[in-house]
């Protein structure tokens, strides 16, 4: 499977339409990740926190999926959303928590939205 097939639909379309831009963007991300001592699960949690701070639902979903694949506990992902309360405010943090739970507890989220 190619890297762009794992992307959300819109990002995958851009990656296929503009492969040079996508390769440069991916290389920039890799260079930023390698620029210091933060690694592995800590790096993934930082990226999740940045996506939460930016209000990026797609970014939160993506980083949560990757984090779970890398063995980060779902409870840690939820804690990152809760840590946003004092800095970003309760409403933004609750929104982020629902985005995290879209990935960590999809069945519970479906029942919550229909109930």
TrEMBL record:
Supply the Pfam families for this chain. Answer: CMD
Organism superkingdom: Bacteria
Q: What InterPro entries does this protein's entry cite?
A: AhpD-like (IPR029032), CMD-like (IPR003779)
Q: Where is the Carboxymuconolactone decarboxylase-like domain?
A: 19-102
What PANTHER family does the record tag this protein with? ALKYL HYDROPEROXIDE REDUCTASE AHPD, BLR3452 PROTEIN
Indicate what this protein is called per its UniProt record.
Answer: Carboxymuconolactone decarboxylase family protein
Species in which this protein is naturally found: Falsiroseomonas frigidaquae
Q: What is the lineage of its organism?
A: Bacteria, Pseudomonadati, Pseudomonadota, Alphaproteobacteria, Acetobacterales
